[in-house]
C-alpha cells in the first residue's frame, strides 16, 4: 500500500533522513520506533507532503507522492493525526469532529460516524459541547485521533499517540487503534518513543536511529530483541 524507497530529507544542511526504505501493507499496523531526534516525525511529514524528500520515492497505492501537495495526499486517503494533540481549542468537541469531515458531503454518514467516535471514546460524547481547549491531555489525544478518523482514511498516520499520557489512558488509546484497524480495516503507521505499547499492537516494526533504519522485524520479535529492550524498553 505504502512504499518508501531510499528517501533523503533535509532541513537546510541538516540531513534528517539518510536513505530510508520501508513498506506498509494493506491492513497492517506498523510502528516506527526511535529516540528523540531520530527522524520519526520527519518520516511522517515526508509521507504527508509537508516536507519534500530531496531524493528517493514514496508511492501509495501505486501513485508516486513526490511533489504532491499535502491536500492532494489527504484526498488519496492518507490522514495524519499530529503530535501534540493539535485540536482547535476554541471549537467544541463536536465542531472539531465535524471539521475532520470537511472533505465529505455524506451528511447522514458523518452523523453516524460522530456517534461511533462517542462509543469509541465515551468521554468525548459526554463533552461534545465543551470547548476542545478545556479537555485534558488524554481527551485531546482521543479527539485528535477521532478527528483524523472522520476523514475516512485508508492509511492513518499517528505521531506519538501516547506522548505525555497516563499509562491507563495510553492503554485505552492503543486498544482503540487496534480496534479500528481490525474492525474497520484502516491501515495504521505510527511513530512512537513508547516502544513497548506500540510494538505490542503492531504486526511489524522498524527501528530508526539517526535517520537510518537499523532493524526491522515482527512486533513480537522486536519486543524480545535484546538491543531493542536495552535501548527502547528500559530493560
Ligand atoms: P521527536 O520524538 O523528538 O519528535 P523525531 O524522531 O520525531 O524526534 P525529528 O523531529 O524527525 O525526530 O527530527 C529529526 C532531525 O531533524 C533532528 O536532528 C531534528 O533536530 C531535525 N529537525 C527536525 N525538524 C527540524 C526543523 N524544522 N528544522 C531543522 N531541523 C529539524
From TrEMBL:
<dbReference type="InterPro" id="IPR052156">
    <property type="entry name" value="BCAA_Transport_ATP-bd_LivF"/>
</dbReference>
<dbReference type="GO" id="GO:0015807">
    <property type="term" value="P:L-amino acid transport"/>
</dbReference>
<dbReference type="InterPro" id="IPR027417">
    <property type="entry name" value="P-loop_NTPase"/>
</dbReference>
<keyword id="KW-0813">Transport</keyword>
<keyword id="KW-0029">Amino-acid transport</keyword>
<dbReference type="GO" id="GO:0005524">
    <property type="term" value="F:ATP binding"/>
</dbReference>
<dbReference type="Pfam" id="PF00005">
    <property type="entry name" value="ABC_tran"/>
</dbReference>
<dbReference type="GO" id="GO:0015658">
    <property type="term" value="F:branched-chain amino acid transmembrane transporter activity"/>
</dbReference>
<dbReference type="InterPro" id="IPR003593">
    <property type="entry name" value="AAA+_ATPase"/>
</dbReference>
<dbReference type="InterPro" id="IPR003439">
    <property type="entry name" value="ABC_transporter-like_ATP-bd"/>
</dbReference>
<dbReference type="InterPro" id="IPR017871">
    <property type="entry name" value="ABC_transporter-like_CS"/>
</dbReference>
<dbReference type="InterPro" id="IPR030660">
    <property type="entry name" value="ABC_branched_ATPase_LivF/BraG"/>
</dbReference>
<feature type="domain" description="ABC transporter">
    <location>
        <begin position="2"/>
        <end position="235"/>
    </location>
</feature>
<comment type="similarity">
    <text>Belongs to the ABC transporter superfamily.</text>
</comment>
<protein>
    <submittedName>
        <fullName>ABC transporter ATP-binding protein</fullName>
    </submittedName>
</protein>
<dbReference type="GO" id="GO:0016887">
    <property type="term" value="F:ATP hydrolysis activity"/>
</dbReference>
<keyword id="KW-0547">Nucleotide-binding</keyword>
<keyword id="KW-0067">ATP-binding</keyword>
Amino acid at each position: 500500500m505504502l512504499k518508501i524507497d531510499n528517501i533523503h530529507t533535509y532541513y537546510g544542511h541538516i540531513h534528517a533522513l539518510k536513505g530510508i526504505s520501508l513498506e506498509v501493507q494493506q491492513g497492517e499496523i506498523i510502528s516506527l520506533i526511535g529516540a528523540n531526534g531520530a527522524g520519526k516525525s520527519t518520516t511522517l511529514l515526508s509521507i504527508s507532503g509537508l516536507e519534500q524528500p530531496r531524493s528517493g520515492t514514496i508511492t501509495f497505492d501505486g501513485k508516486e507522492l513526490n511533489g504532491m501537495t499535502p491536500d492532494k495526499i489527504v484526498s488519496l486517503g492518507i490522514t495524519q493525526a499530529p503530535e501534540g494533540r493539535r485540536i482547535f481549542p476554541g471549537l467544541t468537541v463536536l465542531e472539531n469532529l465535524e471539521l475532520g469531515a470537511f472533505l465529505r458531503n455524506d451528511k447522514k454518514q458523518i452523523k453516524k460516524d460522530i456517534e461511533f467516535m462517542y462509543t469509541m471514546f465515551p468521554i468525548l460524547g459526554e463533552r461534545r459541547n465543551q470547548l476542545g481547549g478545556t479537555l485534558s491531555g488524554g481527551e485531546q489525544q482521543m479527539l485528535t485521533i477521532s478527528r483524523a478518523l472522520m476523514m475516512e482514511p485508508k492509511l492513518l498516520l499517528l505521531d506519538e499517540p501516547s506522548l505525555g499520557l497516563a499509562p491507563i489512558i495510553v492503554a485505552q488509546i492503543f486498544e482503540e487503534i487496534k480496534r479500528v484497524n481490525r474492525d474497520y480495516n484502516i491501515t495504521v503507521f505510527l511513530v512512537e518513543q513508547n516502544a513497548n505499547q506500540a510494538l505490542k499492537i503492531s504486526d511489524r516494526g522498524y527501528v530508526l536511529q539517526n535517520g537510518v533504519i537499523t532493524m526491522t522485524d515482527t512486533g513480537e520479535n522486536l519486543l524480545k530483541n535484546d538491543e531493542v529492550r536495552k535501548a527502547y524498553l528500559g530493560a
